[in-house]
Design brief:
The chain is of the alpha+beta class and 230 residues long. The protein contains six helices and eight strands. The longest helix has 24 residues.
């Protein structure tokens, strides 16, 4: 027996179910399209914090320098670069210096600890077109109190330090003179910030086109459903 059509839409229950299934399938396709759209990758210009492990390999520090307390004989590393906002993916110091080499001329003292510090000020590309030429890489040996944090270690060998209002380390040894964690647009290279270049502020053209295609397919499916059950 054929189902009676709905008084308002003129569609049978089977037609309505078929139409709903088609629309749900197309909605799922649109969701997949949105999820698959490539993100606008962006980096940030900042100082990343590392510590040398066994064999001299650099390990990214999850704790901030004001909290981290390096043990005697350790090596702290700092690198200024354009890096993604993703911890382990940040740019590492380009060289590793063993503790015995950096602190060879700094004698051990009772009630003090020694921490080697490696400073990599990055490249001209990392600095950006408007910034000064970065200083060369350097090392230093800090002799500090046993409970001194990495921030205190750094302050003892590379002043002045500059922090923002949120406690983010912006400059080491006065470098860079301005800026703090500035976002750098993906397509604009290291010289353009995301706000200035406008990257990521507009819709992705591929996503718009894909959405339009799904809308056209949905319209065609509705027309076919109506034609089939008219």
């Amino acid at each position: 027996m054929r189902s009676a059509p709905d008084a308002r839409t003129g569609r049978t229950p089977r037609a309505r179910a078929a139409l709903a299934a088609v629309l749900l399938a197309l909605l799922g396709a649109l969701v997949l399209l949105v999820c698959a759209a490539p993100a606008q990758a962006a980096g940030y210009r900042y100082w990343s914090f590392w510590r040398a492990g066994d064999g001299g390999a650099w390990a990214y520090q999850q704790q901030g320098p004001a909290v981290a307390v390096p043990p005697d004989g350790s090596v702290d590393g700092w690198r200024f670069a354009v890096s993604p906002d993703g911890a382990r993916d940040a740019a590492k110091p380009r060289t590793a210096a063993p503790f015995d080499q950096v602190c060879a001329a700094t004698p051990a003292q009772d009630g003090r600890k020694r921490v080697a510090v490696v400073l990599d000020f990055g490249t001209a590309e990392d600095a950006g077109a408007s910034a000064a030429q970065p200083p060369g890489q350097r090392t230093a040996c800090a002799s500090v109190a046993p409970r001194a944090s990495s921030a205190e270690v750094l302050a003892s060998v590379a002043p002045p330090l500059r922090y923002d209002s949120n406690g983010l380390l912006c400059a080491i040894a006065g470098y860079p003179q301005a800026g703090c964690g500035d976002q750098v647009g993906a397509a604009g290279g290291a010289g353009a910030t995301g706000s200035a270049a406008g990257h990521g502020s507009g819709p992705d053209l591929g996503l718009v086109a894909g959405g339009a295609l799904v809308a056209v397919l949905a319209g065609g499916a509705v027309w076919q459903a109506r034609r089939r059950h008219s």
